[in-house]
């Protein structure tokens, strides 16, 4: 993402009013609005794979799933983000029209330019959402999923797919989203995704 052209701090209310009139999506953090840049084709395909995989299961249990263009509010004062995939089972969010406030699962698809922000400052902000139970990072460059889960003591624990000690695990490894009691093979998340060839080692 990139800062808005005016590069001027805005109050949350001003941001919401201003962004509603813009042709682009803008996230809001620490008083600043940031334009959302375009994604790669694999990034988009992974998001759609996740949506198709989750939709039927979530519909059957009364939850909703949205992709990319739906905003999540961390608090009235922000931040405001556009997750790649967001799931909410909260009654109030079922009637939402402008934003989601009570997600249980957020998925961000990593790209080289955003991975540090998604793992760092964005995750710190998301942890303020008291309903959030899982934060999932899906790599778009390699077959790798990191799932952070809030345990019964409120601490966040990491489960990696494939495990760090077995990075060559096959594509049929099963990923488990505990917050919505859903399992699917890793291969389904990465269906029809071609990864870039590794660069040859220089002498």
Can you tag this structure with a few keywords?
203 residues; alpha+beta; 6-stranded mixed beta sheet; 3-stranded antiparallel beta sheet; 14 strands; 23% helix
Task: Give a description of the structure.
The protein has helices at 12-19, 41-60, 91-94, 115-119, 121-126, 186-189, and strands spanning 2-3, 26-29, 32-35, 64-67, 71-73, 80-81, 85-88, 99-100, 105-110, 134-139, 145-150, 156-161, 174-177, 182-185. The chain folds into 2 domains: 1-37, no CATH class; 40-189, Alpha-Beta Complex (tt1808, chain A), CATH 3.90.1570.10. The chain has 6 helices and 14 strands. A 6-stranded mixed sheet has the order 4-7-9-10-11-12. The model has no long low-confidence stretch (mean pLDDT 90). Helix content is 23%, strand content 28%. The protein is an alpha+beta fold.
Short description:
This protein has 203 residues and is of the alpha+beta class. It contains six helices and 14 strands.
Write the layout of secondary structure elements.
Elements: E1 2-3, H1 12-19, E2 26-29, E3 32-35, H2 41-60, E4 64-67, E5 71-73, E6 80-81, E7 85-88, H3 91-94, E8 99-100, E9 105-110, H4 115-119, H5 121-126, E10 134-139, E11 145-150, E12 156-161, E13 174-177, E14 182-185, H6 186-189
Parallel strand pairs: 5-8, 9-10
Antiparallel strand pairs: 1-3, 2-3, 4-7, 5-6, 7-9, 10-11, 11-12, 13-14
Describe the strand arrangement of the main beta sheet, using strand numbers: 4-7-9-10-11-12
Give the terminus-to-terminus CA distance. Answer: 36 Å
User: Beta-strand level of the residues, as a percent range?
Assistant: 25-35%
Output the number of helix runs.
6
Overall pLDDT level: 90
Return the CATH topology of the largest domain: tt1808, chain A
Shape field? globular
Number of E-type strands: 14
Approximate helicity band: 10-25%
Q: Which assembly state applies to the chains in this document? A: single chain
Would you list the SSEs in sequence order as H and E?
Answer: EHEEHEEEEHEEHHEEEEEH
Task: Tell me what the CATH architecture of the largest domain is.
Answer: Alpha-Beta Complex
Secondary structural class: alpha+beta
**Computed Rg:** 17 Å
Note the main sheet.
6 strands, mixed
> For the record, what CATH class of the largest domain applies?
Alpha Beta
């Amino acid at each position: 993402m990139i800062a808005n052209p005016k590069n001027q701090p805005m109050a949350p209310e001003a941001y919401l009013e201003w962004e509603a009139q813009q042709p682009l999506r803008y996230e809001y953090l620490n008083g600043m609005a940031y334009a959302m840049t375009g994604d790669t084709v694999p990034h988009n395909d992974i998001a759609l794979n996740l949506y198709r995989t989750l939709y039927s299961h979530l519909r059957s249990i009364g939850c909703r799933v949205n992709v990319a263009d739906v905003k999540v509010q961390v608090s009235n004062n922000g931040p405001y983000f556009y997750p790649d995939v967001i799931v909410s089972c909260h009654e109030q969010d079922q009637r939402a029209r402008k934003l989601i406030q009570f997600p249980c699962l957020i998925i961000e698809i990593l790209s080289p330019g955003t991975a540090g922000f998604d793992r760092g400052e964005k995750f710190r902000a998301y942890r303020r959402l008291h309903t959030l139970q899982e934060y999932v990072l899906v790599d778009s460059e390699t077959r790798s999923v990191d799932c952070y889960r809030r345990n019964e003591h409120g601490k966040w624990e990491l489960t990696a797919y494939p495990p760090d000690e077995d990075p060559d695990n096959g594509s049929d490894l099963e990923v488990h989203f505990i917050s919505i009691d859903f399992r699917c093979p890793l291969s389904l998340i990465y269906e029809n995704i071609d990864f870039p060839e590794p660069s040859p080692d220089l002498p």
